[in-house]
Specification:
alpha+beta; 18 strands; binds zinc ion; eleven-stranded mixed sheet; five-stranded mixed sheet; Fumarylacetoacetate hydrolase, domain 2
């Protein structure tokens, strides 16, 4: 099943069109995409009863990207994982690998849809393409073998990061430095794990102005998605609709020699094969003020 936030409404994408869930269900389900995760099993059963196939190719180019929002627009919690690929840990200068996941948060105010303009704050803004998991039910002390049973689906994410603030001070400021407005684009769709041939082995990457910067397979993650669900739920309660950014592979700008960061006019494309693509254009603060003034 492929789920989108289309114009702020919960929508299923089929090979031959879209279903507005609230309308088609006569109000049984809320139009709010975030509410889908509260009764996700019900939604799947209802979709199956409507004849929605488990797998359905959909041509995203038929949708206006500006109408797409984040598949989980208002999660209670947003987790992010650091150092979850061996080669990314190495480029960060870490000589030993973490024995358990390195966890921080991104604030939900930084979430956006898949195709956006991002105003650059002062500093050094870097890219981090990631696979993002959305939780389907309240979870506590989940066994690794049951991890996937607690995942509604996967989407593409960018964990945009302003490196100066991230590294400044006696203790790193991960949460703030990765939570500027627009720093957590996700989308374009949420794909349920049963739709993917192998949800543990997906190819992801990103490119700046057409130049490939990152490319990896999620099978190379140090902690798999089921392991992350098990680990997080051993400490905190996971809620339906919670979002987990699962970590980025090598190739970030800060890990390059010389280092490279995003500037005004740059375009960042990020993708996961089988799910879709994000597209961010970066504006200087001055340009974005002018743009929003002329738009308003
Ligand atoms: Zn990250």
């Amino acid at each position: 099943m492929r789920i989108a936030n289309l114009g702020g409404r919960l929508t299923l994408l089929l090979a031959d069109g879209v279903i507005d869930v609230a309308t088609a269900s006569n109000g049984r389900f809320s139009p709010d995409p975030q509410a889908a995760y509260e009764n996700f099993d019900d939604l799947k059963r209802w979709a199956a009863a409507q004849g929605v196939p488990a797998t359905a190719e959909f041509d995203l180019s038929t949708l206006d990207p500006a109408t797409l929002g984040p598949p989980a627009p208002a999660p209670r919690q947003v987790f992010a994982i650091g150092l979850n690929y061996r080669d990314h840990a190495a480029e960060g200068g870490f000589t030993t690998l973490p024995e358990e996941p390195t966890v921080f948060t991104k604030f939900s105010s930084s979430l956006s849809g898949p195709v956006t303009d991002v105003s650059l704050p002062y500093g050094e803004v870097d890219w981090e393409v990631e696979i993002v998991a959305v939780i389907s039910r309240t979870a506590r002390d989940v066994d690794v073998s049951k991890g996937w049973d607690h995942v509604a689906g996967l989407t593409v994410g960018q964990d945009l990061s302003e490196r100066r603030l991230q590294m400044r001070g006696p203790a790193p400021q991960f949460c703030l430095a990765k939570s500027h407005p627009g720093f957590s684009p996700t989308g374009p769709v949420l794909v349920t794990p049963d739709e993917l041939a192998d949800p543990d082995d997906l190819t992801l990457g990103c490119a700046v102005n057409g130049e490939e910067m990152q490319k990896a397979r999620t099978a190379d993650m140090l902690f798999s998605i089921p392991q992350l669900v098990a680990y997080l739920s051993s400490i905190v309660t996971l809620y339906p609709g919670d979002v987990i950014f699962t970590g980025t592979p090598a190739g970030v700008g800060a890990g390059r020699t010389p280092s490279r960061f995003l500037g005004p006019g740059d375009e960042l494309r990020s993708w996961v094969v089988g799910i879709g693509e994000l597209r961010q254009r970066f504006l200087s603060r001055t340009d974005s003020v002018v743009a929003s003034a002329s738009a308003g």
